[in-house]
Fold this sequence. Notes:
Among the domains are: 281-494, no CATH class; 501-628; 640-768, no CATH class. By secondary structure, it is mainly β. 5% of the residues lie in helices and 38% in strands. 49% of the residues are buried. The chain has a 14-stranded parallel β-sheet with strand order 1-2-5-8-13-16-19-22-25-28-31-34-37-40, with helices on one face. The protein starts with a helix and ends in a 9-residue tail after the last strand.
Amino acid sequence: MKKILFGFSCLIMLMTCQEQTKFKSLKVTNINELNEALKNCKAGDHIILANGIWKDVEIKFYGEGTKDQPIVLKAETPGKVTIEGASSLKLGGEYLEVKGLYFKNGYTPSKSIIQFKISNDTIANHSKITQCVIEEFTQPDRDVTDHWVEFWGRHNELSHCYIAGKSNFGPTIRVFLKGNEHIKNYHQIVNNHFGPRPRKGGPHGETIQIGASDTSMTPSHTIVANNLFDRCNGEVEVISSKSNFNEFRNNVFFESEGSLVLRHGNYATIDGNIFIGNDNSKFIGGIRIINTGHWVTNNYFYKLKGESFRSPIAIMNGIPKSPLNRYNQVTDAVIAYNSFIDCKSPWQFSVGSNVSQSEVLPPSEIRSARPERVVMANNLIYNEVPDEYPIINYDKVDGVTFKNNITTSENKSEVQPEGLVTKAISVNKVSEHLIVPSENINDIYAGFEFESISKDIFRTARTSTQNSIGAIVNPVPENTVLIDKSKYGTQWFKAEVSRAEINTFNVSTAEELKSKLNEATSGDIILLNSGHYNLNTALPINKEITIASNDKNNKVELIFSSEKTAFEMHPKGKLILKDVILTGNKAQNAFTTLDKNMSKAYDLKLENVDISNFKSVLEVSKGSFADSITVANSTIKNCDNGFMLNKETNNGGDYNAEFVTINNTYFDNIGGTILDFYRGGYDESTIGGYLKFNENTVTNSGKTQKDQILIKNRGIVNVELSNNTFENNPVKFIAILWGEKGQKPVDNSIKNSGRIEIVQNLELKLMY
C-alpha cells in the first residue's frame, strides 16, 4: 500500500512539474519589451524588470492570474529598479502582484502613481503591491491633485511598502467606491511604513482616505492594520474614513499632527492602535468620531496634547438632518478599554459646536445635534502630573453614559459623571512610551456585547478571572516595545539617512559667496568676512544653508542691485540668515519664491538682520508654502511692504505658511502692510496657520495701505498679538482679530496708530 501511495505522489509531483514548465520567467530591459511581455503573459508568469532607471514609463499591467499562480511583475533586485520621470503603473485583471519597485525623482503624468484599474472596464481584483517604495514622487506644482495609490475593484492589497514625502494636493492613498464593482471591497492596507508627509497648508493632505461624501453610506470593509504612520503631518486628518464597516487595527501613529477621523460612514472598528505624542506639540491628535455605530477599543494614547479637532478623543456635534457631505450626529458608539497616559484633557465632547456663529452661517451649517447613546466604559486616564480637567465639553453632555472609568487626578471639569472615579494607582514603565498599571484593575463594566472585546492591545485574553480597565491586561509580554520599525515597510529600504558632515566656508567677496553657495551641501555654513558685498544677481536657496557674519558685532552688508529679488527661495530651501545687513535699491524684493513649481516647502529664519530699501521683504507665489518663517531681533525699514503671504485667494482653506513668528523686531517706514497672511474659505477642518507677533515696535508705517490695516491676518485661526508698540502709523486698524477663535490682544502700546478690533464671528465664503 505504501508503494502505491508513493507512486501516486510521484505521479502528482511529475504532473505539477510538467505544468510549471509551461510558465516562464522573462527578463525585460525596456518599455517595449515589457509591453510585449505583458501582452502575452499567462497565469504564473514572472516578468522581471532589469536593474536600472526606467524613466517616463506608463505601465499598464493586465493579466489573468489565479490564486495559486498569480502573474508577478518584479524588480530584478528590489530597490535597484527605479521608476523615474513622468511615470505611472496601472493594473487590470485578476491576481496580479508587483514587487520591489522604487518610485523616485519624478511624478505621475496622470491622476495616480499606482492605480488598481486601467480603465472603467478593466479593473484589478485580488491584486497586490508589495515591497515597493514611493519617495517624494510629488507633483512640481503643489496645486495639482493626484493620489499615489488608488484602490478600485475588490480584494486588493498594499503591503510592506514605504511611502513618504507627498507635498501636493490630494490624499496619499485613496479608496474609491463608485459603482457596485468597488463596494464591499475588503481591501487591505497592511504592514506599511507611511513616512513623513509634510504640512500642506490647507485641506486635502490626508495620508489615507477611504470613500467620499457621495458614497459614504456604502459598505467598504477596508482593513487598515499593522501600519506605522510616522510624522504624517499633511493636515488635520491622517486617516479619513468615509464609508461603512472599515477596520483600523494595531496601527502606530507616531507624532503625526492629525487624527484618525471617522469623517463619514458608520460602524467602524478602531482597535489596538497606538498614538504617541510629545510634550512639545499641541497638534498631535488621536481619534475623532462622527456618525453612528463605531467601536473604539483597546487603544493606547501617550502624551497627546491636542485640543478640539485634535484631542485624544474628539466626539463631535452633528448637523440635524445633515447632508452627506457635512457632519452627522454621533449615536450608538462605544469607547471602551482605552488607556490615556499623560494626555491633556483627553475626552472632548460636542467638538465643533458652532451655535454661537449662527449669525454668519446658514442653518444647514449649524452643528447642534449632541452625541446620543454613547457609552464610555472601562477606560483609564493616568497622569504623572495631575490633569484636573480630563473632560472638555462644548455643549451639554447628556447623551453619554459613563461606566467604570478611572482617572488618577481629581476631576474639576464641568462634567463630573459618577462613572469617572478618581483613584490612585501605581504604574511601571515597561519600555519607552509604555506605562502600565502595576496590577490589573478588575472592576469591569460588562456592557452589551462587551464579551466581544476578548483580547487587549497585545492580544492577551480578557477572561472572567484576568481582565483590567484600560487597554492592557497584566502580565505584559516580555520585551514589549511600542515601536519596532523593522516590522513595517520593505525588507530592503532604509528610510533613515545619516546626515552628511557639516562644512563651514569663509568667504570675503561676492563672487566667493556665490561660488560657495553653489558648492555647499545641505546643512553647510557660510561665514562672511567683514566688508561690503555687491551682488547684481539673486542668490538661489535650494538647500539648507546658514549665511552669517563672521563677527556678529561687525555686521557684513550685502548690497543688491539684482533685478527681481535678493534671495530666490526654491523647494526644500531652508535659509538661516544671521547678523547681516541687507540693502536693496527698491527695484527688488528681499526674498521671493519661484513663480511656479514650488513643489515642496521652504523655511526662512532671520536673526539679528537689518533689512532696508526693498519692495517687499517677502513676496510669494500661489502654490508656494513655507513651513516656518521666523524673524527675531531684527530691523526692517524703508520697504514698500513687509511679508506678503496672501496668494491663496481661491477661498479653499489653503494658505501660504504654517508658522509665522515675528519677535522683538523694529519696523519703520513700511509703506503698506507689515504682514498680509491670508486663509480664505469656511473650512472648519483647516485649523491653521499660526501667527505670533510679539514684542515688536512698528512706527511710521501703513501710509499706502488701501484697506487701512497694518497687520492683515484674514482667516488665520491661531493668532498671538502681545507686548507690541505701535506709534504714528496712519491706519484705521492695526489688526482685526477673530474672537470666536479666542484671539485677543495682550498688553500692546498704541499711539496715533488706529485700533485693534475684535470681530466675534468672521464671515467667510462657504466651501460646500
